Amino acid sequence: MARKTKAPAVPTARVTSEIRDVMAEIAATVISDYFFDPEREEDYRATLAHAKAAGKAPFQLDIDPDSADIDAGACYLTLLGLKDLGSFRLCILGPDFEIASDGVWSFDTGEFSPAKVAIAEGTARALLSGLDQLADTLLMAESLDELAALKDMFEEEGDDDLLPQSQGAPAEQAVLARIAKRIAATRDPMLTLEERELLDASPHLLPVTLETFIEEAAKPGMSSDAPLLIAWACIFFAQLELLRFRLEGGYHWAGKLLREAQERILTAAEQAEVPAESWMLLIKSLTDARVPISASMQERLAEAGGMLNGDTLSSEDLLGSVREMLDTLASMSESPFDIVDSVQGNSAITPPNVRCFVATELMGSENAMLADAVPLLLFDLDASVRRHVALTLDQATKARALSATSLRRLIGLRNWLPPRERAAIDSTIRTARIGGMEPDAWPRTPDKVEVLASLVDGAAGQSVILIDRSERKMTIAGVLIRHGVGVVDAWIQPGLSRRESSELLEVVRQDIGAKRVGTSFGDRIVQHALAVGLRDEMVPPASLLRVAEAFGISTWQDRHIDLAAEVETEFGQLPPKDRTTAGLAALHARALQAMDRIAIFASWFEAGTDIEKRYAKMPAKQAVTELLKRELQEKRRDWAERFLFTALRCKASQDPLECDVAAPLFAVARALTGDEPLSGIPAMQRIAKATVEALPHGKLPY
Q1: What strands lie across the sheet with 474-482, from one edge to the other?
Q2: At what angle do helices 656-673 and 682-693 cross, to 10 degrees?
Q3: Among 523, 542, 339, 554, which Cα is nearest to 443's?
């Protein structure tokens, strides 16, 4: 291969300390990974002895990976063994730089001591930028492999007493630091798929992140809006959310980690370890991640937060501080949604009675924006708060204090509330209409709207992405649903430049596999999710209304999709030949092929503490048989729904390859809505095997 023309050489004596440090970090990563297998040390010693005897030192070691991609192109790595035991030279040939560094590896301590930079060619900027990216790539890849193994160990039994006591190995802590550094530098809080996988595989690192945040926040001059502190808060939020998913999936130890994190946050306030503004970032993370918080813990956190602010927390002082907070919010917010985000962002330390008082104060405010925030408080997760808000709105309507915008929002969100709470809203709307009030017009639908949707993942999650291309600055929004649960999140990013929108859409397409679909599909699954959530009286987040207004969607209601009827309708539309016995067998075979080919299906399996306890030590074939008879049979309807909505998404896709998968998945969904034994459905056999594969020591012999 012809080598590129080299940039001017950088004198090695003038290589910056940053370049030396990053190069040493890369060398340590490469060498520690190479000697991870103990047998390699014996091979190395034997090769060194032979090379010295033959006078052939230095000699090359076979490392993997020996190349990695950075933004400018490929980097090629070579590790050379020098003549002295433990002495190595790492050579890196990049697209616009070349560097080689010597150092000594200690087999006793597992540490690398850099000695000198032997070669450095290229500009200092190219060297530092290239090495920094390379370090991120190598360290992340190494940690994902290690943490995948750690995950199996961590979940071996799933009991609380098996929680690791370690606070994280140095390599793991370094990975967290690099994620934080990346977020702080780019101001992009969205984690990459690799970063999320890493955090998901290492739940024991939650206290590491929390302690690091507290240490950073306590540093002199560290403000609550410092990029690095915000970055650690983003990581903490992601870990909390992932642990909440584990808890909902049946992993009881996740609850213990979450409770311990809350106790540590409480202690940080009681002992005044961090400034109040920084502590509130932790509280916002707890709230945004929807972590379960007991009433007693909520009261303790509220009291500790008051102490941290120097409040006595008498009723009069507390209410006075709320009024002061609302005045501040009014001056800082651009819309009622911003007001509600701030109020609900602190709900982890705001008891329901205080949130009721906030609603009353907002409605009585002379500031129109504050008053218009009140209807949005109907999305509070506490039913008692929602009832108080409804009463407050009714009283305001009788006093003719309700705005046309608030009336329009009440009409729009009425069907997003539990059925037994709608009568109060209907009464308010009726009173307003009798009094001659008219709602303002619903925002118009943008001219150029695209809708993307993901397949259903292993946690029954599915995303709908909306894109407004009508203006030069784009708006992108997302709705996250969980089948069987409801609408769990909604977000919107308006005013994106071409570059910002391209970067965000690349993440959406690559990380969650979203593909373009018709508008009707997105509408249907959002409305179905609304109905599913309201079945358990779970209201959607207020941000869903913000998304609906931005895209002029006034038609989202609670419209449940009947599983059996939908399956029969779709099955009836298949060609007659596919509905024969032979045709169905062919469809089931194609479904199995699709599940082997499409990556998302690798996440389709059962998990949880009970599954692990029952099956981890059972022979694999027996475990598969029992799963088909017990857990999978009990969740037969859930799996039928998952296959149905994945099939509907494939049918709606504009990708011909995905459209071709719809019919086979409809066939599986129909079999699941019937009474056919699961052992006779190939797709369910695959899921049972995948469940066993995911268990500790659960590798199948076939």
Answers
A1: 486-496, 474-482, 461-468, 449-453, 515-517
A2: 90
A3: 554
Cβ(403)–Cβ(376) under 8 Å?
no
Maximum CA extent, the chain: 102
Q: What is the pLDDT of residues 435-481, one digit of tens each?
A: 999 999 999 999 999 999 999 998 899 999 999 998 888 999 999 99
Predicted confidence (pLDDT) at residue 14 exceeds the cutoff of 70: no
Give the whole-angstrom CA distance, residue 636 versus residue 632: 6
Contacts of 451 (CB under 8 A, 6+ apart): 464, 465, 466, 467, 516, 517, 518, 519, 521, 522
- Measured from the Cβ of residue 632, the count of other Cβ atoms closer than 10 Å reads 24
What is the Cα–Cα distance from 106 to 479, expressed in whole angstroms?
51
3-state helix, strand, coil in the chain (%, to 5): 60, 10, 30
226 phi and psi angles, rounded to 5 deg: -65, 135
**CA 492 – CA 474 distance, rounded (Å):** 11
Residue length, the chain? Answer: 702
Q: Which pair of structure tokens corresponds to residue 546?
A: 């913000």
Q: How far apart are CA 486 and CA 482, in angstroms?
A: 5
Strand partners, 477: 466, 492
Spatial distance between the Cα atoms of 127 and 19, rounded to a whole number of angstroms: 7
Between residues 330 and 68, which one has the greater pLDDT?
68
